[in-house]
Amino acid sequence: IINGGIGGVSVGGDANGGGIINGVLYVKVMTDEQLEILRTQIAVYAVITEQLVEMHKAITAQQDLAGVRLGNLYCDPLVTAVGHKITARQRWTPTAVQLQILERIFDQGTGTPSKQKIKEITAELSQHGQISETNVYNWFQNRRARSKRKQLNNAQNNAESEVETDAESPKDKKITRPENFQAQHNSAPRAEDLCFQSQEISSGMQSIDPQPGKIEPIFASDGNVK
Amino acid sequence: IINGGIGGVSVGGDANGGGIINGVLYVKVMTDEQLEILRTQIAVYAVITEQLVEMHKAITAQQDLAGVRLGNLYCDPLVTAVGHKITARQRWTPTAVQLQILERIFDQGTGTPSKQKIKEITAELSQHGQISETNVYNWFQNRRARSKRKQLNNAQNNAESEVETDAESPKDKKITRPENFQAQHNSAPRAEDLCFQSQEISSGMQSIDPQPGKIEPIFASDGNVK
DNA sequence: GTATTATGAATGAACG
DNA sequence: CGTTCATTCATAATAC
């Protein structure tokens, strides 16, 4: 079956294209969809494999002794050595001209680009390089979000000056949790980020685990200490 | 053994060639050889997975006889001890297993998750990690909405082919991602996915892919790819 | 090369 | 339900 799958890939860029991205001509033998699926499949196996290996180690360890050092067991980086950097997902990069236009439109107030507007903008920008409506949409989303965050950040900084115990609610966001952290000069979370599930995201969470003494299923770690 | 798997693969990445270097045009394609390697590597994962599942089953069986369960193995004493450090991640993130199950259910047609259904699904998924009914509900909402929007987008793209006026490539503008088939979501095994919830891995495997030879969803022989 | 930053994209949750 | 927001992830760009 495995063989059956890949064998029939259409060769030639017409299925989805290829095309020119940033001046580079790409001819594809697989569609983006196919690539994505492949990537996912491999990723799934990578994950499963790691999980199983971890589990096996844990069980083995338990068998060996009282399982005292379980604490660091599951984090062994060596086991996670399975390389799962499968691809290089290509990503749109606006050209200078496009950026300029986008910025101009953004500054023009209308914070809501609306679908029709997006279409127009996309049409215009496509004169200056490859771009899609999704790209434009994302750009505005990100632009607005980051602009907002920056403001908020500044406000906070001003209000806070030195005191760490500051009352933290300069803006009173939405509802839900007060948990509000923002830090981004730490994007080096590559490998050592571990899993973590929030434990109280919702109170509706009923454990129907038949097992007695059900424990927090997790094995947690600091998901985001950065 | 495991490491031998996927390490050096590069699908569609620059490692494969492609691009313009010093004015020389390179066409990037994947050779049959490379495809074969990929195939092989996927098969390797399939085999490893199967073996590990078997191993786990055997060991688990032993454990059961002894009346010992794995359930609480993964409560990291360190983490719980330093409880303050762990700031709850405010947003639920499905584990790989959960995602697989969700996708499967989603694909099964029933577009109406109904209250009762949600409850059931949540119950099942909670075996694989923290989750609430709200999470499930939201997931289905989002899944459908985005699936729909994508379709609409594609349709639009297909329908219109005259706006593009010139240079560059007047074709597929959406270089972004697919999501039309079934098993593609987590684009990469995020570190969080590496976490596994104790006892249910092997059963979770069922929903992912019980058979090594059946990687299946990959390449549905093209078809509707634009 | 490696590390850091900037930013496009993905997605859970909330709003109307 | 469709749209929008907020947060996070991955990677292009850049600094070191």
TrEMBL record, chains A, B:
Domain of life: Eukaryota
Domain spans labelled Homeobox: 85-150
Compositionally biased intervals (Basic and acidic residues): 168-177
Keyword entries, A-Z: DNA-binding, Homeobox, Nucleus
GO cellular component: nucleus
Known DNA-binding region: 87-151
Region of interest (Disordered), ranges: 148-190
GO molecular function, one term: DNA binding
Record localization: Nucleus
Protein name: Homeobox domain-containing protein
Source species of the chain: Carnegiea gigantea
Whole sequence portion shown: 22 to 247 of 304
